[in-house]
Amino acid sequence: MRSLRHLPRAAAIFAAFHAAALPALRAQPTLKDTYRGMFHLGAAIRPDQVNGRTPQAAELILREFDSISPENVLKVGPIHPRPGNDDSSYDFAPADQFVDFGVKHKLFTIGHTLCWHSQLPAWLDQQQKSAEPTITKAELTQFLRDHIMKVVGRYKGRVHGWDVVNEALNDGAGGYRQTIFHRVIGQDYLVMAFKWAHEADPAAELYYNDYNLDANDAKRTSCLELIKYLRANGAPITGVGMQGHYNLNTPSAAKVDETIKLFADLGLKVMITELDVRAVGAAPVTGAVGAGGGGGRGRGAPPSLTAEQQQALAQRYADLFAVFVKHRAAITRVTFWGLRDTDSWRRASSPLIFDDHYQPKPAYHAVLNAAKSAGPAKAK
Fold first, then answer.
1. Is 274 among the catalytic positions?
2. Does residue 132 have an active-site annotation?
3. What distances in angstroms separate CA 226 from CA 40, 111, 240, 334, one per listed residue?
4. Of these residues, 64, 71, 205, 274, which one is catalytic?
């Protein structure tokens, strides 16, 4: 290292300050350290955040989180855009980079998602939009099996948990969403998907993932019935993912608490899989895909929140994490859907705990402080 006397005076002063401040910064508590022994803290990430193009993002991921989920690269359309099941039918490169990053840094790595009605390859999306699909039950069953076996098998032992089926339930009155898989194959596709994923990697955890489970009683009831159906038919389900796309006041913390307990009482692991909170007064997001954080992003910079909005957002996160900490015997992971406000599908409402410049918001400190109510850490 060059001596400071060889640097211009201003640079020398800055270097001396940085050298003195760095140990103190490193000594500050982080999310993953604070919650170690309770549950994993994760973030949904994009390719540029793990392939070297945005090193500041990678640094933040590794400092604060011990789990990662892919925002888009493991969804059916992006990874399997062409019909067939040889390597030319798949685009593995972005997913390989994501998984390699997790392996290299010993992160609890999640695969999202093996079966979803949105972000399908174009040829299959056309079938889904058709009033009378021409694809046969045998053809679609073979495609789904091939896809799950190929993708899960490729990452066997390196992806620790999979969102096997995503958003299979209706909003409103509940019941099953009429996806291409349900219309053509029937309800059994749900059981098949879990069995194939388990066959491809018997050690991986397998989840059902959905949104509004704590905001819609009918949908929650449908999900509880779905879990029972899966188990009755031998599907090896490990847990349920509650997506956690919240507003400032809804659903209530009491409703979140109640819902976690209902799933935990079934003996399931519970994950908060796509956490974000829309702040008061922000404009609706534009360009978002899917009700459950589909991966689209609004245009423009996230808005700056007033002091009052920052405080309200922090209080909401504090209330939610108090519930998560209370249920730490059942909850195994909490994942934010995005690293910073700029990366969020709800960016127009500044919903995350890091701002546009990777700086912690008051909500970040609220999340750290919520862990203090837990008492001594429990062994996992």
1. yes
2. no
3. 26, 21, 11, 23
4. 274
